[in-house]
Design goal:
By secondary structure, the protein is an all-alpha fold. Helices cover 54% and strands 0% of the residues. Helix 3 (54-73) packs antiparallel against helix 5.
């Protein structure tokens, strides 16, 4: 079940606010896909970004969650399409994969991320030695980044959805 599209309480503690904002953006990803036709699921409407479809963005967000929380923070092996020697934007190349399956995979990945968040201090730092750009990033920093990353792509999905079928709305 995707999280609700509610903002966190004004008086919530820092962890609750960070997770609340992240959950709201995750919920927007699901909402933007609601009622989308099968034909439009994989259709790209941006000529310079041929792999940026609704399905492609859901897949990308699943792999971004995996990368930051499991690989970078915990130091687990770097596995997934973005780490393979495959084509550019491999994590968005999901032709033929049904959108419900991609949304389910995203939901499950978010649940794994939430377990990691719950088990660590916001001050815990990254452990993966191969990601020099993120060495010493704290869980707090990663959560801010994930709010930014998820919101940015939710915005892409908002524009794509409007171009596909005219549906729009903020949250």
């Amino acid at each position: 079940m995707p999280p609700s599209r509610l903002r966190p309480p004004y008086d919530a503690d820092e962890r609750t606010q960070l997770l609340g904002w992240l959950d709201m953006q995750r919920a927007i990803i699901h909402w933007k896909c609601a009622g989308l036709s099968d034909a439009d699921t994989h259709r790209s409407v941006l000529p310079t970004s041929p792999h940026m479809s609704m399905a492609g963005l859901v897949s990308h967000m699943r792999w971004v969650e995996h990368c930051w929380f499991e690989v970078v923070l915990l130091g687990r092996p770097a596995v997934g399409p973005q780490f393979d020697d495959g084509p550019e934007a491999a994590d968005m190349r999901v032709d033929g994969t049904p959108l419900p399956q991609l949304l389910d995979e995203y939901t499950r990945q978010c649940a794994v991320s939430d377990e990691i968040i719950a088990a660590h201090s916001l001050d815990d730092v990254t452990k993966h030695p191969e990601f020099r750009d993120s060495v010493a990033a704290s869980l707090r920093w990663i959560m801010f980044h994930m709010i930014e990353e998820t919101a940015r792509h939710a915005g892409h999905m908002d524009a794509i959805r409007e171009l596909l079928d005219g549906r729009k709305g903020y949250y």
